[in-house]
Fold these 2 entries.
Entry 1:
Amino acid sequence: MVEEAKDGDSEAEELLPVRDGVSCEEGGGGALIHSSIITLMHNKDALTHFRKINKNNPHPENRESNRQEIIERMEIKNEITMIPCFGFCKGLEEGSEEWKKMSKKVREACESHGCFLLMCDEIIPKGLNEELLKQMEALFDLPEETKKKHISPKAYSGYNGKDPVIPLCESFGVDDVHLSDSAQTFTNVMWPQGNPSFCETLRTMSIKMLDISFLIMKMIVEGYGLPQHYISDVENMKSSCNSRLIKYHVPESNNDCETGLLSHSDKNTLTVLCQNGVQGLQVLSRDGKWIELEIPQHGFVVIVGDVLKAWSNGRLHAVTHRVMMSGEKERYTFGVFAKPKEEMVIEVPHELVEDKVHPLRYRPFNYGEFLHYFVQTLKENALQAFAGV
Ligand SMILES: O=C(O)CCC(=O)C(=O)O
């Protein structure tokens, strides 16, 4: 579906098939969480051509056929990629028919795309989301010497800024906010006079986003029809977490896109991210094209990490992604990276191994050792090199 053109409206953008106006796939109790399935378009040539023909064409009826023509061309070439957007609500009861249906869709999305978009206002209220992203602005506005006080010996924890490789990106990693008083410790270092509101919002958002990760992992167990005892496996795979607060600065030259974050796959189990409405996250499609995600307002993106890929015997896809910045607004991202404790051994359930179609792809491995291997080597194919059979 494509938004209808208004008569006499000369703006080509009105016609662009970038967002499909159908409702978000819903799960649970019939509660309404409407959004749109996001249509991702990455055929820049087709887009340019489309803009051109519409600009020069004042007749709405012809514009309509032009639009049809371009959509057909893009569909034939399979140039439109649909990343599904699901809606979870409170009534999504485990074991219900709705739950089973949603579990299947979640599993399929994680297999095909390695990511999906998620609306879950009933579980994580919109206000909370907005509040944290707003408060992050004050955090990054603190003096550099204060921000540098957040240090950690662990990779991806502590403060990182002014990295010449990714100069637009500044970030804080805070470990295990859900378990300990680390939100309080972090807040006290940043605001010695205290900032209870920031601390509480960071803690609550981290806990809720980690709960969502667990829900999704349970759906994956269901989606593969695995016995219930595997729930404890996935619970262990999210028993630790890293909450990451990121700011991407505006590129100095306004002309081009600049790299905000280098392409990578996540080395944890599952990632849930939200952002302040400034887009920039791109995922690499299976056919090797970068596609721009349009994360809906108050929505989240869920990304499969290497641990889940290994555990699922390579059936789930740990999608490569990056951030590209353009435009005049800063991007703020908040992410919760669910991961196992370092001592956990990741082992493929024997039900997911099948000699002909799905032979064993990864040997059992210790998560801490894998992480160490990656940090030492920074190999793009670290999982395969470390644990591939
Ligand atoms: O900022 C984003 O949207 C992506 C963040 C990300 O991929 C990461 O921190 O690993």
Entry 2:
Amino acid sequence: MVYDGKCPTNYQKVHEKYGPIVRVGPNEVSVADPNMIPVIYGIGSKFTKTPFYATMAPVYQGEPMDSMFTARNPAYHKFLKGSVSQIFSMTNMKNFEVYVDECSQIFIDSMLKLEGELVDFSEWLQWYAFDVIGSITFQRRFGFMEEKRDVDNMIGKIDIGLQYVKILGQFPFLISFLQKAMMSKPIQRLNLLPDTMDQFIKVSVKSQLAFTLTGVMKDLQRTDFLAQLREKEKRSGTISHRDMVNHLSNNLLAGSDTTAISLRAMLYYIVKNPQVYHKIQREIDEADKRKQLSKCVSYDECLKLPYLQATMKEAMRLHPGVGFPLERFVPPGGAEICGHRLPGGTNVSISAPVIHHNKDIYGEDADSFRPERWLEASPEALKAMDRYFLAFGYGARTCIGKNISIMEMGKFVPQLLRHFKITWASPFPEWHTNAAWFWKQSGLLVRLERRPNT
Ligand code: HEM
């Protein structure tokens, strides 16, 4: 199901063939019935994450460090979430806008220099997303865009790590073996296992140290994640150094590839669908003419561009950042799933790409890219489309960073389209995709042309 990198379509195929509940492994059941989403993932549900997530926990100071994303123990998850949920809130997004604006300007300046040349957007959008999340997290760009390369091979290491995760994560006995191996000094010396998170941990520790050395007084102007976390710690004194490193490094892992994938999806579908491109351009240009857009499009302003918002949702519907099923264990007492009694401990999951193609929810043309569906639907239909939209997960463990990505994409895309006309320039008709937890794309080759008056 996962080996060939086509997990999203493989799951769609098995459900088309066998129906809404399919046994896909010795103890694994995949579900395609949207009514089961609240049962499995809803707030208050007793279904917990499986050891698959442990494969994505980094090691810090010789011990695995469960993050808010990988934590399987609900009490520990609640503890971690408690100290940061306000920082991720919608009202706090204005504090992060400045970091997005800085990076968008660097991106646009770089594109001006590359006008008319072949540009690989798969790389550039990833560099952009990484620099934004570094900037938001600890006011430090990694310099991917300035250096036009994968600095310290950070992106390459995640890719290799996820190829391990993709396969090893399917075998629970290998997961505990792997964790023990990672703790063993001789195996560490052999350097056989990818140190995916190593660089993220190092920069998180360095940024912590730099913050302390430069002194809080000097940093009063800082509104980044780290500065806010340190401010909280000063008031409550309950956030340890380890927990801080945990939150910072997790932002980098959870918030970079996911946003890059969603940005690629948005721009790919815009460029490949001339009618959509025309409409979104018109919406941006008209808002511009009415002086409703600032020099750097603000978050508030982009929320008033309904076609842009619909295009964003539609892109994430057809191409969600996470292409794998979201695995959970049935609680000890067992559970009724699609009319079947599943025993406690059964690995049960729902996959966003499967639900997002459900014609009862998204319409007969669910396989096509059509942002209008989000604007034309009746209030009742729209409610269902939103309720079952799984790009950010669901319920108790839904994505906490969602506001950051929606703000970042909503500001960046109109800013880019204001300045450039973008055309598809690949010799191939489509991009290439590969799913290893994240559903990454490559081969997004374009050419940019400066628009008049920019
Ligand atoms: C478009 C961008 C993004 C997508 C598509 C995305 C997707 C997801 C998904 C599907 C989950 C649920 C995983 C599960 O149930 O197994 C999740 C959880 C999470 N995401 Fe995101 N994410 C995005 C951006 C971000 C950003 C920017 C951050 C942080 C800066 C972030 C941090 C997290 C964290 C911490 C969790 C775990 C939440 C919890 O368990 O309480 N994500 N994300």
